[in-house]
């Protein structure tokens, strides 16, 4: 390691995606002395982890992990961060790539103090993507408290309207600049790590589970936002139709995963996610009943298994082996009935609950939007690491469904692969 | 499930099910989606998830004498929704073929019906019987003379009855033997799997239940509950009613001949003729629709046994109508030979009824009656 530190950086590395995997890759490479460009398409770093309420298995808030990383990035002159930026083109071969990136205008410069006056002044309200449309935010906003870079964002929707003028007038720090334009830039790099992560699988595609039809059927990512203190309900888990505190909740495992008709693979994290979310509910509502319908519970490793065992002991938690294949709503009460066959007893179960959570899986972002580079994908859209060819690598959920721990391990490995490419040049 | 059950996997059984069109069964991972999406499956001990695990474990006893395989109407909803492409609907179809072969003796015949290799034999049997018996008795006349064309001059009605009446007796006898075991088995299985709490089998109750399910069968209610394969219901209904129609016609003519002593051919205006013609057309349309459905459904496995039966149904309808048309057109040679082929088809359909897929008309009816009787939810 001491040798590495002394070695002069031989070229630089492009990391695409500023989620937990991209952050780790960037830091690992930069902290041993390599120059890193970190490109993120959102106006903030942190990726999906920023939307979680707590991390399993320790159940600490994601801010603790993310904040340390943000500080390390801020303090590291070797890392240049580009937010609201996407890669347009990649030319060249391992060791020498020519990359074109496009920076979209943020309309807010580094003068921003996050005072929030522009939000006050703005009248337009837009559905919050960060909260999956469960609430509305103003057209000038901060993505979330801990956001990095700590700078407000202007929604494209208010550009050119009176609201834009009102925001600009309200800003006392001259931070708003509507003359900003999109820019393209070229960078020469020796290696590229794609850490483009995942998207929640579109639950409206699963036609028998009622998502998008019945308001009280939500997804697991929506549950994370409901449980988050900075979420649409300030952390109180209530059901969407009438804000009632739910007394019974059903989790529908493998919603759209392990299913040839949707995602054929196991998404790896959704069993743990539902068990974790069970703790959110049980903490807020000591009398609430939780029903988890599963094909089999997948809690890989000793720590996750222990977590599962602990949940199992809770007498208000019912684990039922059998996949939910039918969901209906009582329009009067908004209650949801899920139907499954209990494969252990061989009886059909019709459980009526106040709210149902679909444990939807992960789909790689590269499945829906192909990346502008010569990459190999498997049939599900995950990027295949071609170590023979080298030069470009995929880390974290861009490569396979994974939790934060394995994403980080994988990202560290890919940082090393990227460095090896530069050293060999 | 019962607490103790000694698992005796039968590997050969698994292999045979695979061969009969259940080749996807090993893909099942027991998620139970199928039992929920099945529009017919009951709430207590629903199917076909439990049948899928029994099939992959080779638990023959849990399947062959299981009434649920007969409650299934092969609509395909489960196959469409199965996350693994395990095609439970097809697996149940394969198990049904196996069950038919199990209950029908002699078993060799069952094997012949399920294998294309033996098709020539199946066609030769009636041909040989017709010719040999016809020549011995002189009731088959290859050079019938006279102005009027009448089938009976060529292939005497007496000869037809001499062959088909004993055949009917044999079919009934084989079914009776099979059914005795079948009813015992499904009852035992229902007790074992907790589908019923009626310990003793009460035949009067069973017959009463049978009467209660007849309207359901006649209306094809169960068929219509299926969403995935709705078009199959129409085709099945056509063929089903044409068989009923032809059965009635046959009986009417039987009465005409033996009781009223009237000899054919009967006038086209005779109501029974009307019924016969309508049934014939329905049979052809229904048969053709069934074949068309099979060809256009790629996720459905069509095994040889299915083609054999469909071929017979369509062939029966076509030769029947053709005989009639050519007779009216005065084409003596053609009409006689078409009639001969027609009778070969009728023989196949009839004699091998307990062995072919068509046996479902007996087993399914009994299974539906038992299910009604069992008081299962
Ligand atoms: C309901 C739920 C709960 C979970 N809870 C936990 C938990 O408690 N503990 C745990 O360990 N794991 C949990 N996970 C898993 C965790 O979310 C993932 O392991 C983690 O998000 C993976 O990080 P990543 O960086 O690989 O991907 P992402 O978080 O998706 O980050 C990818 C980043 O790349 C950016 N990007 C994408 N495409 C481009 C592009 N073309 N150009 C530029 N940027 C791009 C995205 O905007 C994003 O910022 C949970 C998952 C779910 C579904
Ligand atoms: S842009 Fe200006 S008004 Fe808005 S938060 Fe930043 S400093 Fe405050
Ligand atoms: S992790 Fe669990 S819920 Fe998610 S796909 Fe795998 S088995 Fe299904
Ligand atoms: S057959 Fe398909 S739907 Fe039924 S249990 Fe098996 S995998 Fe699930
Ligand atoms: S084929 Fe239809 S009737 Fe048969 S088990 Fe499947 S869904 Fe039920």
Report on this model:
The complex is a heterodimer of chains A (425) and B (377). Chain A is built from ten helices and 24 strands. By secondary structure, chain A is of the alpha/beta class. Chain A has three domains: 173 residues, 3-Layer(bba) Sandwich (FAD/NAD(P)-binding domain), CATH 3.50.50.60; 54 residues, no CATH class; 159 residues, FAD/NAD(P)-binding domain, CATH 3.50.50.60. In chain A, the strands form eight sheets. In chain A, strands 3-2-1-11-24 form a five-stranded parallel beta sheet, covered by helices on one side. A five-stranded parallel beta sheet of chain A has the order 13-20-14-15-16. Chain A is globular, with a radius of gyration of 23 Å. Chain B folds into two domains: 93 residues, Alpha-helical ferredoxin (Fumarate Reductase Iron-sulfur Protein, Chain B, domain 2); 268 residues, no CATH class. By secondary structure, chain B is mainly α. Chains A and B meet through strand 18 of A and helix 2 of B. The complex binds flavin-adenine dinucleotide and iron/sulfur cluster (4 copies). One iron/sulfur cluster binds next to helix 6 and helix 7 of chain B.
Quickly count the domains of chain B: 2
Number of helices of chain A: 10
Q: What's the CATH architecture name of the largest domain in chain A?
A: 3-Layer(bba) Sandwich
**Strand count of chain A:** 24
Question: Biggest sheet of chain B, open or closed, and with what strands and sense?
Answer: none
Biggest interface reads: A-B, 24 and 25 residues
Distance between the termini of chain B: 17 Å
CATH class of the largest domain in chain A: Alpha Beta
Helix percentage of chain B: 55-70%
Q: Ends of chain A: how far apart?
A: 20 Å
Could you give a short account of the major beta sheet of chain A? 5 strands, parallel
Spans of chain A of at least 5 consecutive residues whose pLDDT stays below 50 are: 1-9
Q: What is the helix/strand order of chain B?
A: HHHHHHHHHHHHHHHHHH
Q: How big a fraction of the residues of chain B is strand?
A: under 5%
Quickly count the helices of chain B: 18
Over all CA atoms, what is the radius of gyration of chain A? Answer: 23 Å
What is the arithmetic mean of pLDDT of chain A? Answer: 94
Structural category of chain A: alpha/beta
